Amino acid sequence: MKITCLSALLATSTALFTACNSDSTATKQKAAAQTASAAQRVYVAPGKLDDYYAFLSGGQSGGVFVYGIPSCRFIKEIAVFEPRAGLGYANNPGSESYLRLKESGPMWGDTHHPVLSQTNGRYDGRWLWINDKANGRVARISLRTFETAVIRKVPNIQGAHGLDAWLPSCKYVYVNGELEHDFVQNGTDPQQYRSVIAFLDSESLETKFEVMIVGNADIASSGKDGRYVFSTMYNTENAVTSEGMIERDKDAVAAIDVPLAEKAVAEGKFTRINGVPVVKPDEVPGVLTLIPVPKNPHGCNVTPDGNYVMASGKLSPTVTIIDAHSLKVVAEPEVGLGPLHTTFDNRGNAYTSLFIDSQIVKWNIQKAIKGDPTYIVDRVDVHYNVGHTKAAGSDTSYPSGDWLISLNKLSKGMYLPVGPAMPESQELIDISGEKMRVIAAFPSLSEPHDAVFLSRQVLADKVVQTYEITPTATKLGEEKLVRNGTQVDVYMTCIRSKFVPEQFEVHSGDRVTIHLTNVETVRDMTHGFALAEHGINIAVDPGQTQVVPFTAGAPGTYWYYCTWFCSALHLEMRGRMLVKPIGATVSDSIAPPTLEKTQGGPKQDKVSYE
Amino acid sequence: MNKTSIRISTALGIAAAGLLGVSLWLPLWHMKMEAPQYQGNEALRVRIYPHAMRGDLHEIRVLNQYVGVTIPDSLPQFHWLPTALGVAAVFSAFAGLLPVTVRRRSLVGTAVLLSLALVIAAGQAQWQMYDVGHHRNPHAPLQGVQNFTPPILGKVKVANFEIETGLGAGTGLIGAAIALQLTTAFVLRERSSATCRVCGHPFGAAHPANPAELPA
User: Fold this and answer.
1) A495 to B62: CB separation less than 8 angstroms, yes or no
2) Of B42, B59, B142, which is closest to A568 when you measure between CB atoms?
3) What whole-number distance in Å separates Cα of residue A65 and Cα of residue B82?
């Protein structure tokens, strides 16, 4: 009996074990198959191009990161508010990029929201705007060159947070003042603290007018019909402590009637503050409408059809759906803990990032409005604490519904440990099916806050391969040195593998300006110009002219050399700045020394291999 | 000789002249240079016209400095080829004014001379290509590149470049013009040796152009 029992037990356990084992094998196989299919989705063979550009704000890195999607390959950093010596951007005092950045404010910025220009509800591939939250600036990047074209300081703003373009025309970009202050008296009395929503000419970035608010404006999203722009306000209390900011049960979504504000400015119903017309809502009724939403909302996103504004609850587990025309709240579906931002596909679904739950939740907008309890479609875990999320084309009228990016605040154990601080992490999610699938994760420098996708078709043939030669550029064969007292201008060219001139003479302490034109005619043939012991490095793209002034150091020989490996003679691509003592004779000639002279010096003895 | 044939031969002569005229503005020959970093529409191209050399010459000269190759600014062909083509075109256009028998011979002569001009130009070009590939600057920095001669038609590999050459539309037009001239000459020959279908009298100088004027 005992034996029978024992064998029965053994048989059962063996069967169980076998079942378990085969089950786990099946699971493993399934997981492997899923991994393989996910890997295929992001595999872009060397030499093949990605379908999308993804522009990620660089946060405290001060620029914009460009990635390829779906491969998640890093392609470029666009330097904007912070010098990048490697790119020769704003690192040489006196250079154009340095002076432009310096004139606009500090040499550092905190970029948050990349915004693409649109025409007729589609991205047109002209510009990308980006804001500097810390120093109240906005920049415009040209998508012909992927370089910063304009940087402007916005008056009366501290904490320029939300940024969007006024749709559909993109006549203005508008930027929200998040940090309240007294910009009239420059005082410190919180009673006088105000914020503004500033409207900038989208091309020149000149501030055209502002609308004053009590409290603050945070995240921005434009309506699609040329009337309202929306902003969330988490501090309608106008408080100066975090306890004070969460005091009220309700905060607001602000709707600015832009044509009405324009009319008020045209009719003179404004106060000019620091040179900018500021419209005060109590003087112009209707220009500002406050729509109550649960306290301390965060994201604000208009649906692609322009019918609704979604205010994500942050502290409330809900998204408030507001009619973008009547400004009435139509529904407030519960989506999960810590909803921050909502983005959209082309099939009537919204995707909300849940910071606390570390999830993206997909839900059906119409079902939520109708009160259908099955409005939640899917949830997917992300790693970890997602902030912004953005689906491709979500802020146009024609989202593509294929990819979504989750910008996660913490990466914990996602990558090889590199010290206490881990890289920022993004995840790429396939949203083309009913169920979402996390396909890939990729790290970045700190710290992308928001992202926007641009189909490469939009930029096909629009990205320039070389710069147009400007009239002031130095032509090959017309290089020269112009000496005017202690000011020395050297008009130099470079082409594989030579700087012309390869030498010039100055006095110690002279103010030297190098005007360097890259006369290459093919793309990617960038040359650098580093000047030893002077801290100078510039990068000159084909066709481009860069100007860099500096003061010549102590007497001696200082080599300049190419920093972008260009050719078989890259290392030989160098020249000498000959610095003579003050008062010594200097030559204005830029001709290279004669052959005898170059061969005249002592040489390494003949190398022999015995 | 009937009027239709004469009209046809005149028209063909003018057409040949037109083709020759157009060929003055079209490339006779082209060269494509492809390397891993110069692929597809970034491949370097040179087009030789009767009077000039065009294309990515700037970039090719930049690259040539490493292997000591010097591309001439001009070719001797540019001095005589346009004139040869122009004279042939004028001759072809006005051949219709010449008496029929002279006309035939002169068209054949023009065609032969044109062909000869093309052969001489090509021969010169082949020598020039041998020259650039062999008489290189001995101080050129890059070692390990063998002397080379790109063919007039075909492919060759030089350093990291695949060089492919071929004839251009201009050469095609000149060929067509030669063909037209020879066809015209052939038509004239046939007509001049034919007999009149009305009277059986052989066509010739004594025969009136209009058979109706013949005595019955």
Assistant:
1) yes
2) B142
3) 56
Which residues of chain B are within 8 Å of residue A522 when distances are taken between CB atoms?
42, 59
The yes-or-no verdict on residue A361 having pLDDT over 90 is yes
Tokens at A608, concatenated? 């022999």
Q: pLDDT tens digits for A254-268?
A: 999 999 999 999 999
**Closest residue of A to B61, CA-based?**
A496
Which chain B residue lies closest to A497 (C-alpha atoms)? B62
CATH class label, B3-208: mainly alpha
3-state DSSP of B186-203: HHHHHHHHCECCCCCCEC
Minimal Cβ distance to A569: which of B56, B58, B141: B141
Q: What share of chain B is helix, strand, coil (3-state, %, to 5)?
A: 55, 15, 30
What DSSP letter does each residue of A169-215 carry, written as one string?
TT-EEEEEE-S-B-TTT----GGG-BEEEEEEETTT--EEEEEEESS
- Kind plus residue range of the DSSP H or E element containing B15: helix B3-23
Cβ atoms of residues A74 and A67 within 8 Å: yes
Residue of A nearest to B140 (CA): A569
- Interatomic CA distance for residues A174 and A217, integer angstroms: 11
Residue B199 has pLDDT above 90, yes or no: no
DSSP-assigned beta bridge partners for residue A580 = A507
B58 touches chain A (CB under 8 A): yes
Q: B57 with B118: CB under 8 angstroms? A: no
Q: Comparing C-alpha atoms, which of A402, A405, A420 is closest to residue A360? A: A405
Condensed to tens digits (0 to 9), the pLDDT of residues A505-560 reads: 999 999 999 999 999 999 999 999 999 999 999 999 999 999 999 999 999 999 99
Integer Cα distance of A351 and A359 in angstroms:
10
| Closest Cβ–Cβ partner in B59, B65, B66 for A522 | B59
Chain A residues whose CB is inside 8 A of the B66 CB are 567-569
Q: Which of A521, A522, A568 sits opposite B66 (nearest CB)?
A: A568
B25 reaches A (C-beta below 8 A): no
- Domain A480-595 of CATH type 3.40.109.30: no
Nearest CB to A521 within list B58, B66, B142: B58
The size of the A-B interface in CB pairs under 8 A is 16
Cβ distance A568 to B62 less than 8 Å, yes or no, reads: no
Specify burial of residue B176 (Cβ count, 10 A radius: 0-12, 13-18, 19+): middle
Question: How many whole angstroms separate alpha carbon A246 and alpha carbon A164?
Answer: 26
Residue B203 predicted with pLDDT over 60 = no
Using one digit for the tens of pLDDT, what is the confidence trace for A368-414?
A: 999 999 999 999 999 999 999 999 999 999 999 999 999 999 999 89
Task: Give residues 546 to 605 of A whose Cβ lies within 8 Å of B.
Answer: 567-569
What DSSP character marks residue A369? H
Q: Which tokens go with A457?
A: 């078709």
Say how far apart CA B138 and CA B134 lie, in whole Å: 10
Residue B157 to residue B149: CA distance in whole angstroms: 10
Mutate to test the interface with A, among B59, B60, B160 (most CBs of A within 10 A): B59
Question: Which pLDDT value is given to residue A604?
Answer: 64
SS3 A110: coil
Could you tell me the residue ranges of all domains in chain B? 3-208
Strand order across the A574-580 sheet: A503-507, A574-580, A556-561, A527-531, A536-540
**B142 vs A522: CB contact, 8 Å cut-off?**
no
From chain B, the residues in CB contact with A568 under 8 A are 66, 141-142
